[in-house]
Design goal:
261 residues; alpha/beta; six-stranded mixed sheet; six-stranded parallel sheet; 36% helix; binds NADPH dihydro-nicotinamide-adenine-dinucleotide phosphate
Amino acid sequence: MKFLAVIGDPIKHSRSPRIHNNAIKTLNLKAIYSRYHLKDAKLLKEKIFKLGLIGANITLPFKEEALKIADFKDEFALNIGSANTLCVKENKIYAYNTDAFGFLEAIKEFKELKKALILGAGGTALAIAYALKSKGIEVLIANRSEKRFLDFKAYKTSLYENLNEFKFDIVINSTSAGLSDENLPCEENLLRKILSNSKYAFEVIYGKQTPFLRLCKEFKLPCKDGLDMLLWQGVFAFELFFDIKDKRQVIKNSMQAALKL
Ligand code: NDP
């Protein structure tokens, strides 16, 4: 029997056990995926070994620590500065960031992207920015405050009020505005100006008609929410956990079905 878990604080809300366990069942694997509520980042490594995990998804606020404790760090995780997936093999920890791959898979249907605007400068923005950069897409990060720009030294950054470019192929809302409130990520007139010039839009939040998504629909922009990103990051983590390479769509369908259970 193989043991896996999602680790974070808080963790009760996580849907990872549900989606991974359904894929485990579909593929008839001998494994159990649970959740672990960790309070202290310093205990992350110790807990992974004590629980005998062969794999773990790491969520807020331990994604940076997850990278730190790893013996081997995949190029994406290293460049993003955080890991959301850990595999344990022969007492060594391998770190990956599948959020970035999940995002790239989710926007595959958006063609000919050359220039992107990311709204927000948090951990998710870091993963998305690196994913886009890895595809040769020019990225600009805009945020309401400056502090987090320190993490984006490899990118062009701007406060919303200082933005002086308004034409992008894709606009991505990576903020949590709209998650538990009815806020847009930035001032409405600015967003209208940007969206009226854009080809595509993407909202990282899923399962909710956010104000950002509503505005994109008003402009009849092809836009997606974060559901496919969530599912694909799970699929890529699952492939790494079980070393499976040829069942991508089966795993995704099973994970998607689990969300409706
Ligand atoms: P962080 O806390 O690291 O960053 C949040 C960002 O949002 C910051 O730039 C913050 O600005 C900005 N922000 C928050 N509230 C507002 C607001 N009311 N108006 C404008 N800007 C705001 O969060 P993460 O990057 O980890 O997560 C962001 C979102 O991404 C969450 O909603 C999360 O659920 C979602 N997510 C989705 C995934 C998926 O697979 N679909 C995967 C991971 C995350 P400031 O710096 O000024 O505070």
